[in-house]
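Researcher: I'd like a structural prediction for the single chain below. Treat it as a standalone chain; there are no partners to consider.
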Amino acid sequence: MRKSPYHAALKAESIASSASWSAVRALLAERRQLLSLLPAAGRWRAGCLIATLAAAAAAPPATALATGELVHAVSAAADTGAVAGPLLLVVATLLGQQLAEALSAHCSILVARDIDGAVRRRVRHLAFLPRGVAHLGAQGFRADATRSSDAAFTWRVRSAGTAVAGQLLLLSRVCAAVASTLVLAAWFPALALCLLVASLLVRAIIRRHLLYLAHVGDSGALQQRQAEYWAALARGKEGAKEVRLFGLVEWVLRRRLSLHRGWVDQNASARRFVTRSQGLTVVLVTGSALGALLIPGMAAGFGNLDPSGVATCLTAAWGIFQIGSMGFEAFDIEYGAGAARALHRLEAEYGTGSTGAPPEAVRPVGYSRARAPGHRSSGSRM
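Model: Treating it as a single chain, here is the predicted structure.
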């Protein structure tokens, strides 16, 4: 069977990102450095985001326990009045989770905006620290300054603020999965641990494949821009006279079609390869679902588990499975961490403070050029 041309690249990437202790420590250090930018959002907004994410993390295990109480009340109550309390508790946990998720999404936007503004202020401050203006024309400074203060002119936001918000969302989902694991472990410890490990492994596989597809898509940006250039040349007014005068319309369109097909074929080949590589993911998901259904069901069939325990175990297993779903937070962290690394390079090269949230960036007021060393300005005010 002939393998995709991208198989070697994905295999090399997998080997390079193997879970060695040094790589894990470097990753944890990078994530801690990323979270150190959170104070730049301000105490109130950062606190609101953490509170809403904590409430969203506590909702799945609370829902599992409330569901068990509801089933126990239904099976044991003689009248319907005794079911009202557990039913309201289940409704409250479900509505609370939805409300917490909605509020956390709004708070994430505000926090990301404040952090991005703080980073841009810090970049402007670093630009005025050295004496002279020679560093402003350096390719490395310009690239890092542009990357660290990404203004999201493309469809993908690649700022440090979105990375911080995505990292907090990921921590919230991990905490929710661990809490649901503890609830299931009260009846089946081995099953709970296996479901958690399998869900984390599924997430890691999907994350690697999605980031690989994003990398392949970004690598074809040059072909896409060239195809857009030839299309604009064929339909634009600037070169219309020459293109039609010399009969270049078909040649220009063939050039555009060739570049577009090359870009599309490159992405299609990578997607087919990733789709064929989902065997392990299917096995893990199927095995986890069967284990979550069969083991509590068999225990209930043998009389070792009552219906309320079955309901609690199934709801807790569903809470564990949520960590395996992949959202946009993986892209936010991966792309936004590049902006944080660019800021770190600027700090190391031109700054004098730490690489965390700079004191100038945390201030709610704007940056004053008069306070930057080496900048002369008379009568500047905040």
